[in-house]
Amino acid sequence: MLQTLYDYFWWERLWLPVNLTWADLEDRDGRVYAKASDLYITLPLALLFLIIRYFFELYVATPLAALLNVKEKTRLRAPLNPTLEHFYLTSGKQPKQAEVELLSRQSGLSGRQVERWFRRRRNQDRPSLLKKFREASWRFTFYLIAFIAGMAVIVDKPWFYDMRKVWEGYPIQSMIPSQYWYYMIELSFYWSLLFSIASDVKRKDFKEQIIHHVATIILISFSWFASYVRAGTLIMALHDSSDYLLESAKMFNYAGWKNTCNNIFIVFAIVFIITRLVILPFWILHCTLVYPLELYPAFFGYYFFNFMMGVLQLLHIFWAYLILRMAHKFITGKLVEDERSDREETESSEGEEAAAGGGAKSRPLANGHPILNNNHRKND
């Protein structure tokens, strides 16, 4: 049974054009071709990335945060209360009014005290400013190095300038070591992002991030199986071209360098729109949709690869909408915050302040770090 499934999964008609077999892609005469077994190394490399990230954040990002004066205010912790804690963990983090009244009777606290406890407890679970800075520093470092390395791999190749040469000789296209390592490192990094996503900073597009990571891993892996390596290197370099700008903007945002953050964000928005909404669909996607059909009939791999490209393109449109909405607020002078960030809650609400009355002057207490402008995030 397992052998039948294995044979069907690796059936040539799924992965290769008609009249071609895996035997045609066996190494010979000093020419090396992409093989599925090459990707086994990406899982241990992903674990190595997680180890490197741990030490990078500890010995590089943390001192850098101190150098840039990234400060963290002490958060007021919710006092120990088994009744409220049990509800928080099992039923929800934002109780409705009827639930607040019930919890008030069960815990012996007033309704206002229950609401305050839940605000403090929610703030405890929000990531610290230092955690955000360290995560952005790690991603900035990788994306910048990956972009430079990717350009070094493809800038001297003829298909970088003439998209039709992407398919010249396909699929019997030999591979060079730089392409191999570019693929292995990029795929390993995205595996590491998927492994760490549960502990990384969570934002409102958490589900979209998971879809993006899975789609990227599938695309990179499939393009390797099906010898779409030339197209794959172009796509990976294109994505890295804007990602490091975003992460650097976030770093300066967390450090409180508002003007620097704003300027980098504008550059990022321009590069993102040009690369993801112009070059990718009208050059790269056109290259993978139209040119192959001039050489061979469409097969499953052709449809699958372009379907996954379509999924990525839809995510790009979604993130472009968030970016443009932020840019509009920025241009019109409104406060710009990360459209996907979870806002820190203050210790007191306006309603509670008014209720305090009695001529006493009260104001909300800052509970945790303040939200800075332009804290935009996109993890493509």
From TrEMBL:
It catalyses: docosanoyl-CoA + sphinganine = N-docosanoylsphinganine + CoA + H(+); eicosanoyl-CoA + sphinganine = N-eicosanoylsphinganine + CoA + H(+); a fatty acyl-CoA + sphing-4-enine = an N-acylsphing-4-enine + CoA + H(+); sphinganine + octadecanoyl-CoA = N-(octadecanoyl)-sphinganine + CoA + H(+). Residues 338-380 are annotated as: Disordered. PROSITE patterns: HOMEOBOX_2, TLC. It holds the Pfam family TRAM_LAG1_CLN8. The chain crosses the membrane at residues 45-68, 140-160, 180-198, 210-228, 264-284, 304-324. GO terms for cellular component: endoplasmic reticulum membrane; nucleus. It is a multi-pass membrane protein. Residues 69-129 bind DNA. This is sphingosine N-acyltransferase. The lineage of its organism: Eukaryota, Metazoa, Chordata, Craniata, Vertebrata.
